[in-house]
Amino acid sequence: RATMKSLQFISAEAVVSNAEFARKSLGAVAHNLFPLLFKASYLLEQGNVIHDLVENWPLVDFNMGKLLGPTVDYQEDLSHRTCSVCLESCLTGLRDYVLNHSSPYMKILKVVDLTGIKDVEVQFCECKKTMGRWARTQLLSKLCLELLLYLQQEQCNPGTFKISIDVLIDLFVTERNYELVLQALLKKCCCPLKICCVAFRSDNLTLQKFFYIIKLIDPSLLRKLEIVHNVRLEMEHLEILFNSIHFPLLMSLTLPARTFNVRRFTATDEQMLTNIGEKMGEMTQLTELSMSFSILTGRIQKLLSPLKTPLKMLDVSNCSLNHADMAYLANSFHANHLEALDLSGHDIPELYPSAFFKLLSHSSSVLRSLTLEDCNIQDTHVNMLILGLSPCQKLHEFKFIGNPLSSQALKHLFTFLCELPMLKNVEFPIPRDCYPIGITYPIDDASLCRFDHQKYESVAEELNLILLQANREDVKASTPLFGSYDAAIQETNNELGTYLIKSFKETLEKFSTSFNKMN
């Protein structure tokens, strides 16, 4: 569907489509037209024009989210276009803004905000080359160091050293770009471009390196902290982190798998858990918490009750929750505020159906995203599920892959889902009748793809027809067999794979050494 453009935007497109003319004319352009020309250049992927616009930016702030988001002249949101050509031109233009002494505009730029860029699966840019969060982290760090080197070696205009621009960015650090980012952060005070980390994600990093870099990013500014794959952070390390660093603005926290394991708890561990809960309670802005694949049986209350602000997002997938945990969640003050909830990997119908439906009922007025993967939801539970979901009129997203449902049950469920007015995304399982008779759930990875593909395609077609007949073409229905799209994993999967192979090799070597000792 084409988005309407104002005459002013069409004129801006005409100007920037002739790159040579646009670049020569910049000196005569009014300040208030720069944002318009920037968005038009971004839409047409005019890298050279983008570079020159940023190099001569005449305004106090440069906010990517606002510049590319819906505007009066062009409603289309371009902030999900992580076009490599455009973003590289943007960042090199920023470096050259500092170095350019012949610009006709006064240098008044104080804040550059890159946090509004959204990484999505499908890209609409012509070049089809994306620059993800990891690559943006890498490039900005590299440009900061290049800038410092240039300022040290060249005879620079004294005014250059007075330039100080805060660059707000979501950093993504792994072993591969650690040294570069580290150097940029260590030399931040000398650089005119000041890296200000608003969100920090860490994968494939030793604990020593993680603890060192987290102190350098200025935790007092941090709003989101994600410690995800292959950072071996356990409960005692988390306690050290919270005791040694204060996160006053932290709104979102993601912890790696196996941070907690209550099965091997001692009295000391119980005290440690209490301390962690109390420290999280001091984070008055915290509203999003993800603790998937930890073992938290019977300890949810101890962790969450000290929180003073209700959670809007909670991911406790595969955390071995018991009835007491679910009852606490259903009755807690968090329940009425939950906009996103992930309870995957729990046998909900068998263990605590009434507590779950109570939780669903309390969160129904605000709930936007619900994930119930591998929850043993069967055909006999569908009517109850429909009853529970009926009040969830704001639901945007419902994911329930890995459940043993027949194609008939899925059709029944889809007929109901059409009635949820805000629904946009559904992830449904391969129907049970597409697998060989006797398949057991949860299905192991080896058997996951051994289904009747032709039959699945036929069922998927019928489900999409149900949506079509209800005029719900706006709903995207899919079956991502190996989980939803994750931009960060997509961007660093080679490094992740190498790390996993290395870990596996080390484990085998240890086993071999132990075995030889025994013999």
From TrEMBL:
<keyword id="KW-0433">Leucine-rich repeat</keyword>
<dbReference type="GO" id="GO:0005737">
    <property type="term" value="C:cytoplasm"/>
</dbReference>
<comment type="similarity">
    <text>Belongs to the PRAME family. LRRC14 subfamily.</text>
</comment>
<keyword id="KW-0677">Repeat</keyword>
<protein>
    <recommendedName>
        <fullName>Leucine-rich repeat-containing protein 14B</fullName>
    </recommendedName>
</protein>
<dbReference type="InterPro" id="IPR050694">
    <property type="entry name" value="LRRC14/PRAME"/>
</dbReference>
<dbReference type="InterPro" id="IPR032675">
    <property type="entry name" value="LRR_dom_sf"/>
</dbReference>
